[in-house]
């Protein structure tokens, strides 16, 4: 290649190096094909655990920083007629073509290539999916929704529908958070983190948002499972910690807090943590409700609450309603919606809260009046006191 082409290519490589440094967490690989007449020579670089690239060219593999790989490519390009460089990151690939005619650059969607062994997925999938089975096949296989041959498992179709609807319910909220810097998302009581993996895929590869997930769970076993899935998928924009969320110390701004199917007051632990961290967006799908059932009383309803089943159902409603009020009192705009059909599970509510202001005096008065009337001390307030002051008042540890 001539000097003019090489100089232009060097200019493009400056931009590519900046992109790599900015998007390192979602980088996949860099591939170059040199051409001289009818001959073609290939080089490929893959990020390794030492955060350098394992760059294989001409039968030799070297460990090089990304900018050194680009320098190596520029030096080799002198000896060839043309080259095509493919830079891959999650959801996107960038092509740089250089020859005597000049240098061009194009960006394309990175598509998942199916193999001959992979089959068409079930015809029972009738939704217009946000998490499309073909494009998201590696993700769906890793979390057990799809078989190795590329077919959504029949006994996982309902689960697939649930996770896709989950993303649908949150997609507009996340789009309002779209910004230049990385959005930090904490999954409290993450378990095996399946929904965080799904959200990671959607935000990164569909919405093209920069995000970083932090999974917290007290179980070493489930955290280890999450780490294995993370490694399989190559999702470097995730980290997992086996610990209590109150012991997590980090200076990063937490933009989003998630809590999915956290039992009883573990939901309050997550909600109050989101408030404490002044998260922009908080999402909770509560599971079992036990705290208020054991402690609340309300004289006008005594005739109703003598029936245990009615007292339990009323406690569920009051618990989630009070959670919504408490979030509103701290300046959040709250919506409580059905997450999935009640035919699948009665524990089907999703609480969504977007930060709008510092406080809401009206909601604070309503929450205080309800707490007084029910003669309770909510776990939400208890945990918020713990996070804020290091102590909690009331009925002791709710965990």
Automatic annotation (TrEMBL):
One of its GO terms (cellular component) is cytoplasm. Residues 158-293 form the Methyltransferase domain. InterPro entries: Methyltranfer_dom, SAM-dependent_MTases_sf. CDD domains: AdoMet_MTases (cd02440). The keyword Acyltransferase does not apply. The keyword Cell inner membrane does not apply. It comes from the Bacteria. This is Methyltransferase domain-containing protein.
